Amino acid sequence: LEIGDVFVVNKADRDGADSTARELRHMLSLGSGPRAGSGPDRWTPPVLKAVASRGEGISEIVDAIAEDDWMELTWCAYTGAGKTTVALGLMRAFARRGLAVQPFKCGPDYIDPAFHEAATGRPSFSLDAWAMKRETLLDMAARHPADIAVAEGVMGLFDGVGGRGSTADVAAQLGWPVVLVLDGEGAAAAP
Question: What is the pLDDT of residue 36?
């Protein structure tokens, strides 16, 4: 499960959210990838719960990101999981902590960037790995310096044509960590 650097179970007030978080923690504990390690140096991504529509859990997510001292991150989930709500809450929380937040949107979008600007006070720009050359993508991210850059993903993490143009593609090209947002409602088999 080395697809995310932080996992957020959104809609944590719904049935199935607790078991989703518990099962995800269990799966992550079985990891054998390069970050899994063993002994006291073992690292596993945090699994956090949120009800982003009410602002619950946002501070804990901001703290987890700040603990790793990330300067950029990419948000992802799938449609309906609450990635826009979580991304907006975190953009606003970073801004309230006095950070200059540079918002981006993976792929073409005209609605979410307006919300990004309202949350951060800065215009949001598209990072479109399908329509942009790699050099253009890198330049777009570099031309807008800030204390932290936040790119909201498009649809699912790997949605694209053969992986090209996906949020995962943008994150890989920029070398940015991924916060994976999951919908806690009904995602688990048992409560």
Answer: 52
Instruction: Quote the percentage of the chain above a pLDDT of 90.
Output: 41
Residues 6+ apart with CB under 8 A from 156: 76, 77, 78, 79, 166, 167
Handedness of CA 67, 68, 74, 75 (dihedral sign): negative
Mean pLDDT over 13-29 rounds to 88
| Token code pair at residue 20 | 């989703």
Note the pTM of the prediction, 2 decimals: 0.80
Cα-based distances in Å from 119 to 32, 87, 104, 124, 148 = 38, 10, 12, 10, 14
Pair 45, 5: CB distance under 8 Å: yes
> What's the rounded Cα separation, in Å, for the pair 132 and 18?
40
104 backbone dihedrals φ, ψ, rounded to 5°? -140, 160
